[in-house]
Amino acid sequence: MGKREFALMVMFAGILVLGNLQEASAQCGGNFSAVFAQCEQFYRENGPTEPSLECCQELKRQNIDLQCACDYIASRPPGIGPRNGIDLNRTVSVSRACGIQIPPGLRCGDFIIPPNPAPYPAPPPEEGS
């Protein structure tokens, strides 16, 4: 999946924190309120870890402009980051669990997308190697 899905994830995470879904939707496209309705609980610090099918479908359905998303997040006051129970690392994890490719290292405001975790723990090295 391309930058549209990634942009949705990044923009949505920043916008949820700011609580300004309509402004973000108007600027960058997509329907953030619809995504919020399906996915909010999975972005919360103490929410479920596995996203629902409905959340994943809504994330994939939206069409968000990547550069607009990053610019919007970066233009917000410093330190807004993951607040009000929204965890940006969980937002990334949920999006990736939904099959959305998110490039690590991308900077959006003060948040840097973390590397992809290994799908399974690496086996221990064999002795004598």
UniProtKB/TrEMBL annotation:
Pfam family name, one: LTP_2
Protein origin, superkingdom: Eukaryota
Signal peptide residues are: 1-26
Which SUPFAM superfamilies does the annotation name?
Bifunctional inhibitor/lipid-transfer protein/seed storage 2S albumin
Q: Which UniProt keywords apply?
A: Signal
Q: Which residues form the Bifunctional inhibitor/plant lipid transfer protein/seed storage helical domain?
A: 28-108
The protein, known as = Bifunctional inhibitor/plant lipid transfer protein/seed storage helical domain-containing protein
Organism name? Vigna angularis var. angularis
The gene from which this protein is expressed is Vigan.03G026300
